[in-house]
Amino acid sequence: MSSTDNNEELIRIMSVDDSRLMRKAVARILKGLNEVVEAEHGEDAWEKIQQDETIRIVCCDLSMPIMDGFGFLEKVRNADDERIRNMPIIIVPGQEDSEENRNKIFEAGASDFVSKPFDSAQLKACIQTHTKLALAARELKKKEDEFEDVAAVDPLTGLGTRAFFYNSAEQTISFARRYERDLVVI
Asked: Greatest CA span in the chain, whole angstroms?
């Protein structure tokens, strides 16, 4: 996909690997499909995803200095920021690829994995799948926000709807009871 659906920007993917060669291989494979940002280790990746809100997917090695893939996964899945916490992370294990490690990878919160040496078609398919899911999730969030606005405000008058009134009244009555305040309704 050379341009994204609905005139949105390209989905930015981060390639996290202590091997410059592997980072460049991922960037070369995904060239034209997505924009690739590089990070050398988990701590570097953590700083970049906090600063760059356009990064939507991460491809991450397991064995790295400073912070390995498991440490990075733990930090991401426990993040306060919902965008970061829900970010798809594809683990790219090398020599440590085993069934036991794959189970640990998924238990730690990985979205997917592609083993090294990876097949470029497999990596592209994995990234395209998660790209489509990320775009769909973003569209769904927009629709939810629009739906909440429509449900709360009458489009013709711009006034709050009955649902908005009942919700506001319930909150106001609860506040008045809790703080023993008078309440007047006109």
From this structure: 72
Q: How many CB atoms lie within 10 A of CB 22?
A: 20
Distances (CA, A) of 138 to 67, 68, 90: 29, 29, 19
Contact 57, 87 (CB under 8 A): yes
pLDDT band, residue 149 (cuts 50/70/90) = low
What is the token pair recorded at 100?
């036991």
Q: What is the pLDDT of residues 84-113, one digit of tens each?
A: 998 999 988 877 667 888 888 898 889 888
DSSP strands (E only) in 18-137 = 35-39, 55-61, 89-92, 112-113
Q: Looking at the whole model, is its pTM more than 0.70? A: no
Whether residue 145 has pLDDT greater than 70: yes
CA 117/CA 171 separation, integer angstroms = 57
User: pLDDT-based confidence at 59, cuts 50/70/90?
Assistant: very high
**Is residue 55 helix, strand or coil?**
strand
Comparing CA positions, the residue from 97, 88, 92 lying closest to residue 26 is 92
- Given a contact cutoff of 8 angstroms between Cβ atoms, the answer to whether 57 and 13 are in contact is yes
Q: Say which amino acid occupies 3.
A: S
Beta-ladder partners of 92: 61
Within 13 A of 52's CA, how many CA atoms are on the CB side?
A: 20
